[in-house]
Amino acid sequence: MKGDQSAKESNGEIDTALQLKCRSLLSALLWCYQSQYSCDDTCRGENPSHWAAQFPSCGGLRQSPINIVTSKVHINSALPPFDFIGHTNAINVTVENLGHSGRRDLDGVSSVRLTGGALPGHYRAAQFHFHWGGNGRPGSEHTIDGERFPMELHIVHIKEPYGSLAEAEHDMAGIALLAFLFEESADDHPHLDPIISALGRVQNNGTGLDGWTPQAEVIPASKDLHSYYRYVGSMTTPGCEQAVAWTVFHKTLTISSRQQCKFWTGQPMTDIFRPTQPLDGRVVYCSKAGPALTSALHLWFGVFSAALGTTGLIP
């Protein structure tokens, strides 16, 4: 009997320790994805279906991501290509583990800018990040005709003269977000490995690495930027600010199964995507047919790779 009592006390101590650990995790993470339940029911108030309880904008009528139904999009031949400005300039890059994604921040005074694409002004690049699945599951946020893709890249731009996302979110078109969907390829994407390597070096929530890029060659041309979807929406993480002009490019980018597996190893950073949200009467526009963007990712990954290389972060 004494042994049973000791075992119960020991189990009780373990349960108490687990509860304290769960509370500690929740105090550090105000929200989580469906895949990140580490404390049983304790986390259920923080998953995407309950975000609006704590972040009211997440229950708004212009939420993202969405499912794009190609048979219902409105063709708008007046949507022009984009112009990238300052991509040959040096850019400070920080890789940070946020606990729910690996974000790459560009310097707050970066001269990398975006115009065109029927955007109402000039936009400054602020950061880029990915969304992915896990263990063979697709993880894009946007879907096309119900199909979810392996991964999705977001490049976040802030409208000038705003100095931060917090300032830009009060403008309905304060943020321009470019989205690129990935498809699986037999071959590795040569520009992904440096980013995968960097993510492996920031395993703990809140940790980061800084780098500085030398000048990079500007690869994309305006003729490569014609083919995309456009709609008004929100950020896809709390507080889900409804201040985003979304551009989802038609052309998919590639990633090998080997490279996908590298993203999946960062538990609990798997299946980090928000489910698609209702359109609620919004219209999705489609630019005129034209060559899709194939080289923009090369540019962005080239910039990032150079940053890691110059700081000794790539072996």
Residue fraction in strands: 25-35%
Distance between the termini: 59 Å
Largest sheet: 13 strands, mixed
CATH architecture descriptor name of the largest domain: Roll
Query: On the 0-100 scale, what is the average pLDDT?
Result: 72
Q: Work out the number of β strands.
A: 16
| Whole-number tally of structural domains | 2
Shape: globular
CATH superfamily of the largest domain: Alpha carbonic anhydrase
Task: Report the structural category.
Answer: alpha+beta
Number of helices: 6
Using only C-alpha atoms, the radius of gyration works out to: 21 Å
The ordered string of helix (H) and strand (E) elements is: HHEEEEEEEEEEHEHEEEEHEH
A few lines on this structure:
It is an enzyme of class 4 (lyase). The protein contains 6 helices and 16 strands.
Overview of this protein structure:
The chain contains six helices and 16 strands. The chain has helices at residues 2-28, 51-54, 165-168, 193-200, 257-264, 296-310, and strands at 67-68, 74-75, 82-85, 92-97, 102-106, 113-116, 123-132, 143-144, 147-148, 151-159, 175-185, 208-212, 228-233, 244-249, 253-256, 285-286. Strands 2, 3, 4, 5, 6, 7, 10, 11, 12, 13, 14, 15 and 16 form a 13-stranded mixed β-sheet that branches. It has a three-stranded mixed β-sheet with strand order 1-8-9, with no helix packed on it. It folds into two domains: 1-59; 61-310, Alpha carbonic anhydrase (Carbonic Anhydrase II, Roll), CATH 3.10.200.10. It is 21% helix and 25% strand. The chain is an alpha+beta fold and 315 residues long.
